[in-house]
Amino acid sequence: MRRRTESGSCSEAPGAINSDIENPHKVYEKAETFWSRCTQDEDGMLGGIPSLHGPDVVGSTNFLKILKKNLIVTKFDNALDCGAGIGRVTKHVLMNSFDSVDMVDLVDELVATSADYIGTDDGIGEKFVEGLQTFEPPIQKYDVVWIQWVSGQLTDQDLTSFLQRCIKGLAPNGTIVIKESVSAGGKTLYHDSDGCWTRPESLLLKIAQNAGLHVVHKTVQTGFPKGLFAVKMIALKPVHPVEEDDD
Ligand SMILES: C[S@@+](CC[C@H](N)C(=O)[O-])C[C@H]1O[C@@H](n2cnc3c(N)ncnc32)[C@H](O)[C@@H]1O
What we know:
The chain has 8 helices and 10 strands. It has helices at 13-21, 24-37, 42-45, 53-69, 88-94, 108-118, 156-169, 201-211; strands at 11-12, 78-82, 100-105, 124-129, 142-148, 170-182, 189-191, 196-198, 213-220, 230-238. β7 (189-191) and β8 form a beta hairpin. S-adenosylmethionine is lined by residues 28, 31, 35, 45, 83-85, 88-89, 105-107, 110, 131-133, 148-150, 153-154. Keywords: Methyltransferase, S-adenosyl-L-methionine, Transferase.
């Protein structure tokens, strides 16, 4: 799977970023074309390495358990799965913990397939078809906003403003989780086929900080095959916490 392997065809970002950043619409169009043609199953969501699914689910579930144990996540009413695709994370991770899970993805066909893949509407809230670069989460709704393997689809600037809108979407004491592949050696890599960047962790953290977030817990995914980018799970809270409504 090229997006998550260290050895795949990709370029160091400076040139690619500069040319693409002038026209982020082109990058987003490329992504939409790529993802609307992928297979609508776990294989497609995991870029051709379906064996990632098991360890990924265990890693995310354990991460959520630690957030609960450490009182980082204290309510389990509503979660939002960003870049949800067919609902793999929704079904196997979030629905086991949250009363209701909303989903957002750029690709209509993937969101449509999620009904069959998940197999029940019970525990599914709203389904939004929109790019995260423009999506505005409902205000103060979510105990957790989960952003997995999609942050690299946004330019630095759009990711910053998306995270700022996510902060507005958090319920009091809400948490944003980013689960993402990160590059080594401090370089951002651009993948032309699906218009996606793999950033170093330092840049991801800088973007989160610029958006007004700070890290409350982080860990690395284990159990993946060798040769893939490292995958980090990062829990973030707003620097200025969301206040309870006084009604
Ligand atoms: C690698 S898949 C990950 C899917 C899911 N998060 C998972 O882990 O199974 C990337 C997903 O992000 C979606 N996506 C790509 N660009 C997006 C964007 N700009 N806004 C929202 N979703 C996007 C794709 O349609 C695809 O479903």
